[in-house]
Amino acid sequence: VQLVESGGGLVQPGGSLRLSCLASGFTFSSYVMRWYRQAPGKEREWLAYISNAGVNTKYADSMKGRFTISRDNALNTVYLQMNSLKPEDTAVYYCNALIDRNYWGQGTQVTVSS
């Protein structure tokens, strides 16, 4: 199992980024996917969930209306569209798959700063 995040970077407050997570080594379309983040000195925080077919999504309350999770099962990729970014969104963002255990990517750094 391999998860590879990309799309992070430096963005100004109010800006947008779209993160991608390319999955391999398992039947991607059979598993739910999640996004998490971890800010310096803080615990890893769950952000969003998407069902295996992409029909159902859930979000942490603080993300509703700003972040959108989606997936393309033909491309084995899950996305996180992030809008209206704030400095407090600065963190390393991880995708997650729970198969026989939790699998994590290496993370992608998002920095929101002027």
Q: Structural class given helices, strands, pairing?
A: mainly beta
Major sheet attributes: 7 strands, mixed
Low-confidence stretches: none
Report the oligomer: single chain
Fraction in helix: under 10%
N/C terminus separation = 37 Å
Shape: globular
Radius of gyration: 13 Å
How confident overall, as mean pLDDT? 96
Count of helix runs: 0
What string, H for helix and E for strand, traces the elements in order?
EEEEEEEEEEE
Q: Tell me the number of strands.
A: 11
Give an account of the 3D structure.
The protein is mostly beta strands. The protein has strands spanning 2-6, 9-11, 17-24, 33-38, 45-50, 57-59, 67-72, 77-82, 91-98, 102-104, 108-112. Strands 2, 4, 5, 6, 9, 10 and 11 form a 7-stranded mixed β-sheet that branches. β9 (91-98) and β10 form a beta hairpin. The mean pLDDT is 96.
What is the gist of this entry?
With 114 residues, this protein is an all-beta fold. The chain has strands spanning 2-6, 9-11, 17-24, 33-38, 45-50, 57-59, 67-72, 77-82, 91-98, 102-104, 108-112. It starts with a strand and ends with a strand.
